[in-house]
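Why this split exists: single-chain examples teach little about how molecules sit against one another. For that reason, every record in the complexes split bundles all components of an assembly together and asks for one structure covering all of them. Below is a record exactly as it appears in the raw files.
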Amino acid sequence: MIAPALTKNQSLVFEVLNRSDAPMSAYTILDRLRDHGFRAPLQVYRALDKLLEFGLVHRLESLNAFVACSHAQSDCCSRGHGTVAFAICESCGHVSEFHDHAVDHRLGDWAKEKGFKPAKTTIEIRGLCSACAA
Amino acid sequence: MIAPALTKNQSLVFEVLNRSDAPMSAYTILDRLRDHGFRAPLQVYRALDKLLEFGLVHRLESLNAFVACSHAQSDCCSRGHGTVAFAICESCGHVSEFHDHAVDHRLGDWAKEKGFKPAKTTIEIRGLCSACAA
DNA sequence: ATCAATTGCGTTATGCTATAACGTGTGTCA
DNA sequence: TGACACACGTTATAGCATAACGCAATTGAT
């Protein structure tokens, strides 16, 4: 899944997500981009679909929101080296993205044992980050 | 979190979920219960909130839907002995609920290391069950 | 060069998911 | 008995996501 050059809309959405230090809903992104000519949710959702496909953005299922991939610079996402997990602070909104090989492997083992063919795995931990828990 | 006797609405919602072999959205539950006097989403959501609190029901974040806890009979859920994971078949809709101590422990270690205080953890694997993958 | 297929884009309308805010009734118990 | 907690019912609204239409630009094979 090599990412081609982004289109204008895709770039705009990606920029907004990259600048944000917290997840954003599609509608929040839309509002941020009204000045750039965005008028309808579909403009955002279509861009997000592509960005997700390219691995530049992640969707947080438990929030119905989106974040830029923390490792977009490296080969992490574009190579799809495994399942990514998220720790979401419910106080400040900060999201830590990490990969745990052991967890990945363990879930893979379970799937293998059960004959289940995984397509996409979601791991999200909600709680308080170290700064907010202090 | 010992579950007290369920109220009428809670029982109705729980029954519907128990009879279903796939997750159900709140609105689908509502439709199933129109004959029993349900008229508004809030009647369902309020019951679901309690059932979730009692550990009798789980919410599937990646589907915005709900399932009865597979282990409701045992002490699994009511005791909250750890994080539960779900394997969701995208073909037949069947959901397997399981617990993996190693995964649980591993994520706990990560949290401890980072000073993150977990409140709720979501693990959902979407794919094809053995029957549908065959 | 041209035609067909693909892709992105814009717009309108709609559907699905979830909660706010208000009021009612009922049971507890100090 | 009066304050409180809790379940319930209703209306309205907020928030998230996609269907369906049409147009424009690009690509690529013939």
